[in-house]
Amino acid sequence: MPQEELVAHALAAINSERKKFGLEPVALGDNQAAQLHAEDVFRTKQISHWTSSGEKPYMTYTRLGGEGSVHQNVAIAGFGPEEYDRCVSTIILCERIDPLPTIDELQNEMMYNDKECCDNGHRDNILDRDHTHVSIGIVYDEYYLALVQNFEADYGMSVEVEGTKVSIAGPMPAGAKFDNVVVYYDELPSKQAYDANKEKLAYDAGTLAASVFEPLPRGLKYQQPGDYVVIEADRWQDDSDGNLDVSFDLAPAIKEDGVYTLYAMLEDAEGEQFSATSHSIFVKTD
pTM score > 0.70 for this model? Predict the structure, then answer.
């Protein structure tokens, strides 16, 4: 079956659920991180939010050009590695995958049977009102299907990095207010990271490394909390037309090699906080 038809079916299933709850549809994103992740899951036959190279979803999303904020769902159907090999070799007779009904079944599980396994994390991603796009990865054969949904809050913000100098600029959604930028740290991706985390049902943003706030009046300084760094921005513009323009030096937060991910935090019209970027910066000094 053509990939475009599979993706269109998966997108329609997502937007059907959003419509039931009075939410705007999400548009189909073109970032390829979801497809790459689905291919990785299909190859390893291991459902995971980490790729086999050790990347978390926001790392792959950034590396492949994503500029919004990404939140990932992963689902599989079919047989585990040993059974799969026996199915392929026809040692045993196995039920074959029909892709469209299987996508519907996985979507239904994430919507209506998600509490026990995942504390409704998949459902919350599907029904998040601040998500604007979803990029979808699907890989299948007769005995296994991998489905990855990368939900994005992408309002057109851009992140520019030159050395340790960072600028975040672009439009905010109607009614939203800018809060601050938070920076989280992860170790560099590795096979060891994958092996240690591949069976976890959820992933986090890493360890808080820094918070960025607006410039203080001359002579005043932010108090440093100790377990993370407070960075005073060089530029902080949040105008009445809903445009954001912030710049700062990330250097105080960089203590060691690793991945530093920048989240521009907004408050939407309903008072809920959400991130409009999840931009990963890979720091390796060797």
Answer: yes
